[in-house]
């Protein structure tokens, strides 16, 4: 089942229009043939950032904690947590947190990567968590994040992103969780 959280269509349309207007597209970055969606201008514009936060927060109004994925997910996570009146957890790349940590390794196109959270699962056990990041591409990082949080005892209630690159099929890796994407390209 590929679950979808119902988010107010008007709210999503406003956020999508703002994101589309502010996203800066960079061809051949970070490598030839790739078209990079730079969301820096989206985050730097107050009204656009507010629209994005409101739309993403609507994906899980019952969340007790927001997990922002390294690094742009931190920016979004802070805004969402403030909007929802809850805390925020930084899901970090390996080696950025002091031990002890919980780690999940995942496959990349060429090699592996790992993400970590503090090992104190008391912070997460039984908590309803909204996972947020800027882009859903192949879904590897977000799927690993969900796995990591669930192993720590959290209940992932939704995943939310600003942009989904549909052709890369990442949504399929998250099919057990409601997924909200403001813009799908």
TrEMBL record:
Homodimer. Its EC number is 2.4.2.7. Its main location: cytoplasm. Residues 45-163 form the Phosphoribosyltransferase domain. It comes from the Bacteria. Pathway: Purine metabolism; AMP biosynthesis via salvage pathway; AMP from adenine: step 1/1. This is Adenine phosphoribosyltransferase. It comes from Rhodococcus chondri.
């Amino acid at each position: 089942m590929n679950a979808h959280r119902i988010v107010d269509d008007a709210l999503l349309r406003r956020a999508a229009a703002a994101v589309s207007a502010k996203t800066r597209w960079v061809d051949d970055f970070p490598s030839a043939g790739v078209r990079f969606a730079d969301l820096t201008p989206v985050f730097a514009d107050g009204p656009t950032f507010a629209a994005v936060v409101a739309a993403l927060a609507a994906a899980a109004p019952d969340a007790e904690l927001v997990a922002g994925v390294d690094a742009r997910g931190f920016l979004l996570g802070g805004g969402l947590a403030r909007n929802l009146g809850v805390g925020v957890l930084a899901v970090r790349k390996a080696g950025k947190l002091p031990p002890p940590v919980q780690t999940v390794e995942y496959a990349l196109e060429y090699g592996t990567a790992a993400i970590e959270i503090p090992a104190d699962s008391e912070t997460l056990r039984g908590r309803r968590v909204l996972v947020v990041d800027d882009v859903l591409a192949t879904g590897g990082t977000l799927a690993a994040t969900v796995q990591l949080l669930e192993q720590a005892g959290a209940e992932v209630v939704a995943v939310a992103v600003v942009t989904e690159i549909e052709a890369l099929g990442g949504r399929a890796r998250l099919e057990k969780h409601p997924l909200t994407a403001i813009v799908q390209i």
